[in-house]
């Protein structure tokens, strides 16, 4: 099926979809005043090198649009499924890969969000361990608890952390501020820090020793989790390899001239095999993920 000009209809669909993606990625023209300011600053910055009135190359808009494209690619990596789907759709002369790519976008977005949340959690946990060690060291050196905590900067714990040094500096509710920040995923260790602070203020117990115990417990838990992660790396690698094998089979079949995509996308038996294979592939990945989550002790 072709368009009036001889262009395959699937090419028109792919082009329209990619155009819509380019619009939705938010690549808008910047304001006129901002553009003028950037050009003016660029003129000043290169005046000494290129001489007065010298040509600017590359133009300012090249770097500007390049930076916006890089930021958009980092923030919306799941949209890369659409160009891949367009490529497979053009290769197999069918719209089905494009539909599958569109369905995969929210799934990939969710997977990326889970990974980003996991990295944020690890950074928060490392920041809490470093906080405990820093404050305990300052207390061992003879500094006042409020002074030691007020000097800590922990941007990894989010904007809510700013209330903790302020409370320590001006005599506020430090345990309450610590518990509020400790509700963030990965910062649960601050609940123990708040308990140690409360006991030290009310009963005169050693705060430095309590913070050191909290840091040791958090470090031991992190080491155990990393060891388990390393032990499960083989299982995840095997699952990834098995998931890629069908794609390698398609490439090998195409290289041998068997045209597997045409069989899968344009025949009834091929479509049935494609649906069944996709279901089995998804079931296998879900089963492997369940095994890994069970081994980690997470909810399934």
Automatic annotation (TrEMBL):
It is found in: Cell membrane. Residues 139-253 form the Type II secretion system protein GspF domain. It is a multi-pass membrane protein. The keyword Membrane applies. It holds the Pfam family T2SSF. The chain crosses the membrane at residues 6-27, 39-62, 82-105, 239-258, 264-287. InterPro entries: T2SS_GspF_dom (IPR018076). Keywords: Cell membrane, Membrane, Transmembrane, Transmembrane helix. PANTHER family: CONSERVED TRANSMEMBRANE PROTEIN-RELATED, INTEGRAL MEMBRANE PROTEIN-RELATED. This is Type II secretion system protein GspF domain-containing protein. It comes from Streptomyces stramineus.
């Amino acid at each position: 099926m072709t368009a009036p000009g001889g262009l395959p209809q699937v090419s028109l669909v792919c082009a329209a979809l990619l155009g819509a993606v380019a619009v939705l990625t938010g690549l808008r023209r910047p304001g006129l005043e901002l553009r003028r300011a950037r050009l003016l600053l660029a003129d000043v910055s290169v005046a000494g090198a290129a001489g007065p009135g010298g040509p600017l190359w590359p133009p300012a808009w090249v770097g500007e649009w390049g930076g916006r494209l890089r930021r958009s690619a980092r923030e919306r990596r799941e949209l890369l499924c659409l160009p891949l789907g367009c490529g497979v759709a053009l290769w197999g002369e069918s719209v089905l890969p494009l539909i599958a790519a569109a369905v995969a976008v929210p799934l990939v977005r969710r997977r990326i969000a889970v990974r980003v949340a996991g990295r944020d959690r690890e950074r928060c946990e490392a920041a809490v361990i470093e906080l405990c060690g820093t404050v305990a060291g300052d207390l061992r050196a003879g500094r006042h608890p409020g002074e030691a905590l007020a000097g800590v900067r922990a941007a990894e714990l989010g904007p809510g952390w700013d209330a903790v040094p302020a409370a320590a500096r001006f005599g506020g509710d430090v345990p309450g501020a610590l518990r509020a920040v400790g509700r963030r995923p990965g910062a649960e260790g601050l609940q123990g820090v708040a308990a140690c602070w409360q006991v030290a203020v009310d009963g005169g117990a050693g705060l430095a020793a309590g913070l050191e115990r909290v840091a040791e417990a958090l470090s031991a838990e992190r080491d155990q989790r990393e060891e388990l992660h390393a032990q499960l790396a083989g299982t995840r690698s095997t699952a990834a390899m098995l998931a890629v094998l069908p794609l390698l089979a398609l490439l090998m079949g195409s290289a041998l001239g068997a045209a597997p995509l045409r069989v899968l996308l344009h025949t009834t038996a091929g479509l049935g095999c494609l649906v069944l294979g996709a279901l089995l592939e998804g079931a296998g990945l879900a089963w492997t993920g369940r095994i890994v989550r069970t081994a980690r002790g997470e909810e399934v």
